[in-house]
Design goal:
Two copies of one chain form a homodimer. Chain A is of the alpha/beta class. Chain A has 18 helices and 19 strands. In chain A, the strands form six sheets. Chain A has a seven-stranded mixed β-sheet, with helices on both faces. Chain A starts with a strand and ends in a 6-residue tail after the last helix. The model of chain A is unreliable at 1-32 (pLDDT under 50). Chains A, B: Belongs to the peptidase M28 family. M28B subfamily. Chains A, B: The chain crosses the membrane at residues 7-28. Chains A, B: It comes from Panthera leo (Lion). Chains A, B: Keywords: Aminopeptidase, Calcium, Disulfide bond, Glycoprotein, Hydrolase, Membrane, Metal-binding, Metalloprotease, Protease, Signal-anchor, Transmembrane, Transmembrane helix, Zinc.
C-alpha cells in the first residue's frame, strides 16, 4: 500500500482543485518423482523433519539468491524478468534440490511503459515559451546502478499520454497530476544528500517512486477470464480504472522547486511537509520567486499501453497421501527496477525454502502429506496480474482443493519484528510456528515473544496475543482470498515504529532499492530473512504435513463478535430508526460460535485415539472449505473480484461487516424507504445467509 | 412443460394481436440412529441388498399411498398440504420403517390465489350490458370429487387482477388473455362427454388446466436468498416476471362458444383445432352467430398475492462411511387439486422407497456408504419454490457434498416405457439399473430393452442406446442442475407416442386428476409405478453404496462433440466472416476428451486391486465435482439462476452451446464489430475456460 502526497501543478475547477494543488492519498497495489518414503495414510507432521528444515535454512544462501535476483533491473516482461523465470525453472528442475515438476506458463497481458523516444517531461515554461526549469528525467546515478539502459525512468503506469500546460485560473478542472513523496512521510524529515542513501537507508533527493495507477487488479483487458492469446479482450479505449488525466511522479528535490515557488494562501498544517518552505496553494508562482509569476508548468506524458507476454513459474511437490490438497506458497518476481527488497527479498527466501525442501525430497527422506505448490508470479507491480490470471484459469480446481495460500512478497522491510496479515483460521498456525523459532539477535527470545511486544491485542479468547493484520489488496494474496475464498496470509519482518514514521522503506519502487541497500541497511547478515524463511517454512510444513489441518476455524468467532458489536454500538440506533433489526445477525453469529465450538470438541476427541483417515479427511474438508462459505458473487456487483462478505473493501467508517458498513454510510442521508435503505436490508440478509451457511458447514455433516 | 393454445378474447394493437386472437406457446413449470452394521471403509454396493429392495418394492403399497395422498385437494400451503407434510414426517419418523432423522422446515413465500368472494369470470356482454353467456367458473362435478370447497377454481397464478372488456378495433393492445387446451392437442381430437373422463382417460369438456404464469422460478420476492421470515424482500409491485395483463384459463367447451362465433378471416391451418368449426381471427362476433355482432367479451380476474408458509419435508439416512456425501432424492408434494398423477404418483413411489430402505435400516441389516436425503418440496406448482429456497439456504454445503439429485415428480404419465432426463454422467447408472429390472407386463424383457424401442439414438461411443432427454426447468431438478451444478435426473414411465399425440396426460392440472383416474386409466395394477420405484431405487442405491461413484464423466465428451460439430456446421462460416475462430473450442473439447479417457483408465486400474479408501475418495471427488466446473455465475447475467454453460436455456436455433447459440442469433443481424459480436466472443471465451477447467479437474490431481 502506498501513501503519497500529490502535487497537482495545474489549476482546476472544484474549490480545492481550482487552487492548483491537490494533496491526496492513493491506495496502489505494491507491490519425474524422487524416490518416495514409505507412505502411511496416517502420516502426520514429523517434528524432526521440521527441525531439519529450520536448521538448513541458510542466511548466506538467501543473501546469494538476493544478489543474483537483484543484479539487474527486471521489470515485468523484460528480458531479465523472463531470464529470472528461467533461473527459477532451472532451480526447481535441479536433480539434487529441485521439485517434482515445474513449468512457466505465459499470459498475454496489457502493461504500460514510458516511451524511449519521447521521455516524459515536467518543466516550468516562461511566458515566452522558454524552458526555465526541467525536472530530472531519471534518478541520480549514486552507486553506478541507476544509469543502465534497463532502469525504467520514473512514470505512473497506465496514466494516459498528454501534454497539459497550466492556464491560470482555468475553469476546466485539473489537467494533470504530479506525484511526489515528501521527506516528512518517508525520511523522518531528512532530505539532504549527506543524510540519505548511500549514506543512510533514507530516500535520496532524486529518488522517485514508480507505481501502477490502475484502479482494479488483474489484466485490464480480460476481467474474470485468463489472459490467454485467444481470450476475449475489452477495447483498451473503453477500459475503466485507468487514470483520467496525465500523471507523473517526481522526486522531492524537484517538487521543492515547484512547491516552494507557489504563491497564494498557506496550505493547511496537515498538508505541510519537510521541504523547508511554507507550502502555498497557488494558483501561480510568487513574483519574488525563481520564476516569472506568469510562468506555467508543462507536463508531457508519453506512456504507451503494450500487450506483453508475462510468465508465472509454478513448481510442485506431490503429496504422498492427499495429492489433491494444495498448499500454495507464492511471491511475485517482477520489480520496478532492481527490486532488491520488493520483491526479491521474498523470492530469495522462496528459493532457499524450495532448495531445502527439494533436497529432502530428492534424497527420498521426505514427501509431504499434501501437495505443495510454489509460485513466482509475473506482473504484480502492474496490478497482481500473474496471480489473478492464474486464479481465473484454474478457478474450479483451486477452489475445491486449496488448503491455504502463503504469500511472502517483501520478506524484510526492516529487522525489528515479525508482521503477519491473514484471515482468522491461520492465526493459530502462525503462532505455533513463531513460538518455536528464535528471534534474530535476541538470544532466548522467540519470534512470538518479540512480535507480541510490537503488535498486540487483547483477545477475549486468549488474552494478550500478537495482532494479525487483515488482508487488503496489497499483494498477490488478493485474488486468493477475495475471489477464491481461500484462507490466506502474508508474512514479513518489519520496523520498530518507535524509531521511524517512514510510510514504508524509503527506497520503495526507486532505482535505489538495490542489493547493497539491503546488505548494508535493511538486514545486514540476513538474519531477518532467515527468520521469515523459518516462520513461513514452518507454517508451510504444518499445513502440508499435519494429519489434522491446523486451521482454527473457531477463531473466526472473535472477528464476527467484534464486527457484530461494532454494528450494534455504532449502527444499532440508526437501523432501529429504519425498523431494521440486527436480531437475525445476532442469531447467526451465535449459531456459528456454537457450531465452531462443537467442531473443536469433535477434533479433540478424534485426536485422542487413532482416527480413520476418511474421518480426518471429512473433518479437514470442513475446515478447508469454511472460508469458501463467506463468498457471494452477488454481494458486491460493482467491486470487481471482491466476493468475501467479511473482507471486501470497507468505505463506511464503522469497523464492521463491509457490506453493512458501506450500505449504511450510503443510506445514512437518504429518506426512509429509499433504495439505499433497501440495499442495507439486502446486505444484512446476504450476511445472515453466509453466516448460517458457514455454521451449516461446521455442524455434523449428517445433520439436516 | 406445457403447450397450450391461447385465445385472446380482446383486441390488440400489433398486427397479430390486433386481430383479437393469439395462439401462442407458454412454457410453464409443471409442476436416534438405528443399530449400525459393521462398517468397512471399503464398503461397496451389496447386490443382495439391491435385490431385496427390488423385491420388497410393493405395487399395492404404492397404490395405498396414492389413495391417501390424493384423497383431498392439497394446494400449496393449504391445510391438507401441511397435513400431508405431517404424514410424511410421521412415516419418516416411524420406529420400524423410518429414517435416521426428519424435519419439516418452512419458508414464507409469495403465492397467488383466486378470490373466494369474487370468483374470476369470463362472459359475453351484449351492447346493452346484459350478460348473454358466462363461462363455467368451476369444472363439472363428474365423480363427486370436483365439487368440494377445497377445489381451487381454475385460474392463472400470478396473473394480475383486472376487468378488461373488449372494444372492437381498439388500438390499445391486448387487454386480457384467455387460455384453453384444444381437444386436438390433448384428446387426439375427441371432445364429447361420452368419449372423455370418466368414460376414458381424456379431458372432459369442462376441464380447465391451472398453472403458474410466473416467468422465473423460486420465491418471487427473495431471488438468491432463502425466503426466511427475516429475509430481505422485493416490493411485490416492482417484481418482474409476472404476466402484465389479466389472464384466465377456460375449458374447451366454453372456448368453443367464443371461438366458433368469431367473424373475420380464417386463422392459418396450423392454428385450427378440433372444436368443430373454422377458427376465425375476428375482430368481433359474426352477425349470424349466437351473439349480436357488437357484443363484447368481459373478463374479471380477482387473483390475490399472499405471503404463505410452505413446508419442505426432509429425511436423512446417515452414511456409514462417507456421511458427508449426499445423494438427494426428491419430489414436490403440492398439487393444483387432488393431483393424483401430478405429483402424488411420484410421492407414492417416494414413500414406498423410503419405507423399504427405512425398514432395512431400522432392522440393522443395511446402512448406505453415503448419506441419502429424501425431500418432499413445497409450492412447486407456483415455480419450484420449496426446492429453490432450499438450494439458496444451503448453497455451500450442498455444492461441496452432493453427489447427485434424483427427481421423480410424475412417476407415471402412461405405462408404455421408461423416460429419463439427465446430464451425461448419470446415463450409465440409469442404464445399469434399467437392464436388471423386468419391464411390467412384458415377461423377459428388461426395462432397458423396452425403453430402447421407444426412445433411442445412435451413439458414436456405444451404438444404439436409449436416449436421455436434457433437463429444462420443468420440475425441482432445475435449481440443482442450473444453480448448483449438481448432476441431476428425472425418471418416469410414459406414453407410446404411436398411440396418442396428447401433449401430456389429458387431466393434467385439472380437478379430474384423481385416484380413480390413475387406478382405472393411467396404471391399473400400478406395475408401472413399481417399475419406476425399482429403477429410481436402484439408481439411488448404486449412487449411495458403490465404492466408486457410478458417474461416467467421459459420457460428457459425446455432448461436447455434438455441440461442437453443430457449431462448426451451422455457425462456422458466419463466425469466420467475423474473424472469430472455433479453434480454441476445438482444442478445449479435445483436452476434455483426453483427460476423461485417461481418468477412465485410472478408474479401471484402481478397480482391479483393492484400492486405499483415500485414493477412491479423491477420485470420486473428481467425478462428483466435474459438473460444478461448468458453472459460471457471470455467463448469463439476465437469466436468473442459470449458470451452467452447457444447459442454460437456448433461444438460438442452432443445437449447440447455449451461450454461443444465443449470442450468435442476437449478433446475426448486427454490424461488424457491434457489441453483440463482442458478446459472441465473450461467450466463446467463457465456454473455453469452462471446458479447460473441466479438463483440469479430470487430469491427475498433482499435475500443474
Amino acid at each position: 500500500m502506498q501513501w503519497v502526497k500529490v502535487l497537482g501543478g495545474l489549476v482546476g475547477a472544484s474549490a480545492l482543485l481550482g487552487l492548483g494543488i491537490i494533496l491526496g492519498h492513493f491506495a496502489i497495489p505494491k507491490g519425474a518423482d524422487a524416490p518416495a518414503p514409505s507412505v502411511s495414510v496416517s502420516q502426520d507432521l514429523d517434528l524432526e523433519i521440521l527441525e531439519t528444515v529450520m536448521k538448513q535454512l541458510d542466511a548466506s544462501k538467501i543473501r546469494e539468491n538476493l544478489r543474483e535476483l537483484s543484479r539487474e533491473p527486471h521489470l515485468a516482461s523484460s528480458p531479465r524478468d523472463e531470464a529470472l523465470a528461467q533461473l527459477l525453472l532451472q532451480r526447481w528442475r535441479d536433480p539434487e534440490s529441485g521439485l517434482d515438476a515445474a513449468e512457466a506458463p505465459t499470459y498475454e497481458v496489457l502493461l504500460s511503459f514510458p516511451s524511449r523516444e519521447q521521455p516524459n517531461r515536467v518543466a516550468v515554461v516562461g511566458p515566452t515559451g522558454t524552458i526555465l526549469f526541467s525536472c530530472r528525467q531519471s534518478e541520480q546515478n549514486l552507486t553506478g546502478e541507476q544509469g543502465g539502459p534497463d532502469v525504467v525512468p520514473p512514470y505512473a503506469a497506465y496514466a494516459p499520454p498528454g501534454t497539459p500546460q497550466a492556464v491560470n485560473a482555468a475553469k476546466h478542472g485539473v489537467a494533470g497530476v504530479l506525484v511526489y513523496t515528501d521527506p516528512a512521510d518517508i525520511n523522518d524529515g531528512h532530505s539532504s544528500a549527506s543524510q540519505t542513501f548511500p549514506n543512510s537507508w533514507r530516500l535520496p533527493p532524486s529518488g522517485v517512486e514508480r507505481g501502477s495507477y490502475y484502479e482494479y487488479f488483474g489484466d485490464p483487458l480480460t476481467p474474470y477470464l485468463p489472459a490467454n492469446p485467444s481470450s476475449f479482450r475489452l477495447n483498451p479505449d473503453t477500459v475503466s480504472g485507468f487514470p483520467p488525466i496525465p500523471t507523473q511522479p517526481i522526486g522531492f528535490e524537484d517538487a521543492k522547486i515547484l512547491l516552494c515557488n507557489l504563491q497564494g494562501t498557506s496550505a493547511p498544517a496537515a498538508w505541510q511537509g519537510a521541504l523547508g518552505c511554507d507550502y502555498k496553494l497557488g494558483p501561480g508562482f510568487r513574483a519574488d520567486g525563481d520564476f516569472p509569476a506568469d510562468s506555467q508548468v508543462n507536463v508531457s506524458v508519453h506512456n504507451r499501453l503494450e500487450l506483453r507476454n508475462s510468465s508465472n513459474v509454478l513448481g510442485i511437490i506431490r503429496g504422498a497421501v492427499e495429492p489433491d490438497r494444495y498448499v500454495l506458497y507464492g511471491n511475485h518476481r517482477d520489480s520496478w527496477v532492481h527490486g532488491a527488497v520488493d520483491p526479491s527479498s521474498g523470492t530469495a527466501v522462496l528459493l532457499e525454502l524450495s532448495r531445502v525442501l527439494g533436497t529432502l525430497l530428492k534424497k527420498g527422506t521426505w514427501r509431504p502429506r499434501r501437495s505443495i505448490v510454489f509460485a513466482s508470479w509475473g506482473a504484480e507491480e502492474f496490478g497482481l496480474i500473474g496471480s489473478t490470471e492464474f486464479t481465473e484459469e484454474f478457478f474450479s480446481k483451486l477452489r475445491e482443493r486449496t488448503v491455504a495460500y502463503i504469500n511472502v512478497d517483501i520478506s524484510v522491510f526492516a529487522n525489528a519484528t515479525l508482521r503477519a496479515q491473514g484471515t482468522p483460521p491461520v492465526q493459530s498456525v502462525i503462532f505455533s510456528a513463531a513460538k518455536q523459532i528464535p528471534a534474530p539477535g535476541l538470544d532466548g527470545l522467540s519470534i512470538y515473544d518479540n512480535w507480541i511486544q510490537y503488535f498486540n491485542r487483547s483477545s477475549t479468547e486468549y488474552g494478550l496475543v500478537p495482532s494479525l493484520g487483515s488482508l487488503g489488496a496489497g499483494s498477490d494474496y488478493a485474488p486468493f482470498i477475495h475471489f477464491l475464498g481461500i484462507s490466506s496470509m502474508d508474512i514479513a519482518y518489519t520496523y520498530d515504529r518507535s524509531k521511524t514514521s517512514a510510510r514504508i522503506y524509503p527506497t520503495y519502487h526507486t532505482a535505489f532499492d538495490t542489493f547493497g541497500y539491503v546488505d548494508k541497511f535493511v538486514d545486514p547478515g540476513f538474519s531477518s530473512h532467515q527468520a521469515v524463511a523459518r516462520t513461513a517454512g514452518s507454517v508451510l510444513l504444518r499445513l502440508s504435513d499435519s494429519l489434522f489441518l491446523p486451521l482454527n476455524v473457531s477463531d473466526y468467532g472473535e472477528t464476527l463478535r467484534n464486527f457484530l458489536q461494532a454494528a450494534q454500538r455504532d449502527l444499532g440506533v440508526l437501523l432501529e430508526q429504519h425498523s431494521i433489526s440486527l436480531g437475525p445477525l445476532v442469531t447467526a453469529v451465535e449459531k456459528f460460535e456454537g457450531a465452531a465450538a462443537a467442531l473443536g470438541q469433535h477434533v479433540s476427541a478424534l485426536q485422542k485415539d487413532t482416527p480413520d483417515p476418511l474421518q480426518v479427511r471429512m473433518l479437514n474438508d470442513q475446515l478447508m472449505l469454511l472460508e469458501r462459505t463467506f463468498l457471494n458473487p452477488r454481494a458486491f456487483p460493482e467491486e470487481r473480484y471482491y466476493s468475501h462478505v467479511l473482507w471486501a473493501p470497507r468505505t463506511g467508517s464503522v469497523a464492521t461487516f463491509p457490506g453493512l458498513a458501506n450500505a449504511c454510510s450510503r443510506a445514512m442521508n437518504t429518506s426512509l424507504g429509499s433504495a439505499a435503505w433497501a440495499e442495507v436490508q439486502r446486505q444484512l440478509s446476504i450476511l445472515v445467509v453466509a453466516l448460517e451457511g458457514a455454521a451449516a458447514t461446521l455442524r455434523p455433516v449428517a445433520d439436516l
